[in-house]
Amino acid sequence: MEFWRRKKKARKCFLKSGSMFLQQLIADCNGMSNPIRMFSSDQMSKATDHFDPMSALPNSFWFTLYKGVIEGRSYVIKRFSEYVVRAEEANVYNDIALSARVSNHSGFLKLIGCCLEFPRPIMVFEDLEYIAVNERGSLGSEDGPLLPWNVRLKIAKEIATAITYLHSAFPRIIIHRDICAKNVFLDKNGTAKLTNLTVAVTLPEGKSWIEDRVTGIIGYIDPIYARTGIVTEYSDVYSFGIFMLVLLMGREPLFVASNMDGPEFTYYILDYARDLQERGELIEFGGGSKDMRPGQMKMFLDLALRCCAMRNEDMPKMILFWNLYAGSSDGTTTTSIRWALSFGTSILKHVKDLLERGEPLDEVTDTFYTKMVKDMTSGQRFQMEACVALALRCCGKVDESRPKMIEVAKELKRIQTSL
């Protein structure tokens, strides 16, 4: 009797969830998607030992990840929290539909299938021994060692490429809306994967924006989007700029630090940099820099600044990141006179002044970067400056001044292979 009761409940859940999934699939991508497999509730329960917490990976408030074996093959199993299903049920099916659509791209977790026989739908991903990036942009515990610079740069490039795919590969632009360190995984080959499309939104065909409720992680949310509710591809650009700064500085977007008098305060990463500017102090680079290639610092700085620019027309699209990885060593660009205000530091203001006067950036070497980059060559400093500048440009206060993700991706590619 219990067996048939469970079967009846599973069928009821499947019919309800299947209907909602189909509706979302049609709404998001006109019903066109990569085929995925349907798993049974029995397979899910057995694979996770009835969702035993001991088989769970470090998780989020919104979902829990489990490692499980089905038919002799290892998978990552994503189970949404009860809160998500109760509050925003459509988001669950949105994640399934969009993940299926992008699963063949190397920049995303590959969705194998799902199970709709529970009140809370379950997603099943390919298991490539994923490791989650933490809030400081490193691996493991929050106080663990930071990643080498070349790994951080590679992560930035690969995530920029994934976002570019969302923005440009389909007739209707997909905005992720939740780009942050904790939604990035590294597989066993060190390839970065973007995940969690729960709150992603698909713009109407031919449209560049939509008005919707504000969602995302504090510290990563675009201020324009937070103020107006208007979602554009530049909302992702801003979040990506913050992600770049997290990778660069090895700090969370919201962290505790001491001021010059000693007491500790909670800072946003951008506010912290402004405070450094006012006190004439330096922005720190988290971790060593011996693996930097010449010129990467300057190019990263320039691209970061464009992502933080004040107007959309000054912001690169994400494809520009790709260009930066393509081999050009020319990272100098003209930016708005207000970019220092968007993420103020003494370094950035000084670099801006040098660029406007047409003077070489080598002058920065003996002044503002002494503590931060004392073990770098001049070429390596150039490369780091470019990375910071790009992140700051992504974080501009006005949409029109930010780059698009396709521009950002090209620039990051050029940084990686520069000089």
UniProtKB/TrEMBL annotation:
<dbReference type="GO" id="GO:0007166">
    <property type="term" value="P:cell surface receptor signaling pathway"/>
</dbReference>
<protein>
    <recommendedName>
        <fullName>Protein kinase domain-containing protein</fullName>
    </recommendedName>
</protein>
<keyword id="KW-0547">Nucleotide-binding</keyword>
<dbReference type="InterPro" id="IPR045274">
    <property type="entry name" value="WAK-like"/>
</dbReference>
<dbReference type="InterPro" id="IPR011009">
    <property type="entry name" value="Kinase-like_dom_sf"/>
</dbReference>
<dbReference type="GO" id="GO:0004674">
    <property type="term" value="F:protein serine/threonine kinase activity"/>
</dbReference>
<dbReference type="GO" id="GO:0005886">
    <property type="term" value="C:plasma membrane"/>
</dbReference>
<dbReference type="InterPro" id="IPR000719">
    <property type="entry name" value="Prot_kinase_dom"/>
</dbReference>
<keyword id="KW-0067">ATP-binding</keyword>
<dbReference type="Pfam" id="PF00069">
    <property type="entry name" value="Pkinase"/>
</dbReference>
<dbReference type="GO" id="GO:0005524">
    <property type="term" value="F:ATP binding"/>
</dbReference>
<feature type="domain" description="Protein kinase">
    <location>
        <begin position="51"/>
        <end position="419"/>
    </location>
</feature>
<dbReference type="InterPro" id="IPR008266">
    <property type="entry name" value="Tyr_kinase_AS"/>
</dbReference>
